[in-house]
Amino acid sequence: YFMGRRLLSRTAGAVACIITTYAFVFGFPAVDGIALNGETLQLPALLSGAALGALAMRCPPGTRRRRLRLLLAGVLLGSAIAVKPSAGLHPLPMLVWLAIDAAKRTHARRAATLDALIFALSVVLVPAAFLAHAAAQGTLASLLYYCVTYNLAVHKNASPDLFPGLGPLYDHLRGHTLYF
């Protein structure tokens, strides 16, 4: 609520609160018999990271306040990626926003570019720690299998039971994007 209100309006804050409450109380439909999905677990980190990133963009480039917010936003978004790797696309709009900001600021381009680098490195920090831990424990192959191979196999196949006509449309759209 507070982030939505601060970024947009009280109405946006109320809508965000309702959606988040619904997600926590009712969750999402269980897939593969799992009662608690990663979407529910990653939601606080994902929303907080996106909101902190947006708040950081209100500060001038190169300021301590902006860099601290970008660092925290990146760590939170990286945490969401560690919970569910499909969240890896969510930091991209922030990087585009930072790149546009750096391009339009001729007098502060170096500071804005450093801001983008701080954000990008902080996003990678948590997933890199998970990968390093898995490598040290000898479970890196299993981690990569379940986070990449298994997810690709599951998410590439549209559900024929619920929407039989959706499969060809999904395949057509997938052919025109970089997703999977």
Explain this structure to me?
With 180 residues, the protein is mainly α. Helix content is 73%, strand content 0%. It contains eight helices and no strands. It has helices at residues 2-7, 10-26, 38-56, 64-83, 92-104, 109-137, 140-156, 166-175.
Short description:
With 180 residues, the protein is mainly α. The protein is 73% helix and 0% strand.
Write out key terms for the chains shown.
180 residues, 73% helix, 8 helices
Helix and strand layout, with pairings?
Layout: H1 2-7, H2 10-26, H3 38-56, H4 64-83, H5 92-104, H6 109-137, H7 140-156, H8 166-175
Shape: globular
Strand residue content: under 5%
Largest sheet: none
Low-pLDDT windows of residues: 29-35
Series of H and E elements: HHHHHHHH
In round numbers, the mean pLDDT is 80
C-alpha-based Rg, rounded: 19 Å
End-to-end distance, in Å?
34 Å
Structural class: mainly alpha
- Please give the number of β-strands: 0
What is the helix tally? 8
Report the helical percentage.
over 70%
